[in-house]
Predict the structure.
Amino acid sequence: MTKLDPEICLKIKEARRAAKLSQSVVANEVGCKQSALSMFEQGDGTKLNEDVINKLAQRFGISLTETAAARTAAAPVVAAVAEAVRVRGFCPNAHCPSNKPYEVDGRTLVLPDRLMADPVGGKFCALCGEILEKRCPNCGASVHDGAICSFCGDAYVAIG
């Protein structure tokens, strides 16, 4: 058997618990030690041989290939969701090339370009190396696209 998906170990554990069976009872049924079954249920697929794993899967009606195939099919969706939720930081350095100054009613503001400053969701600005801010420096609210925090009204980047 190739590398076993840890999710299968968890499914077997959940099925055993749902059936209200102890590890000792199940271990005796499939021909392994209780301690090996315990480690297996914690996600270590190397603790049981292929024959025992097949017996466990058959005992609880779990497909050994279905979980891996489902994960592979869902991988692009999971990656897209992770990208959408990632909070990109902005550079607090007013002189950084990622920050674009502009004027509104005689007041100079700085519009942070979070994608330019933080293309990979890191800790430091990709252009100047400054530590990125991921929350409003004044009130701690989550940042959004724009120059001013919608909660407290302060500018994200101070000019000075």
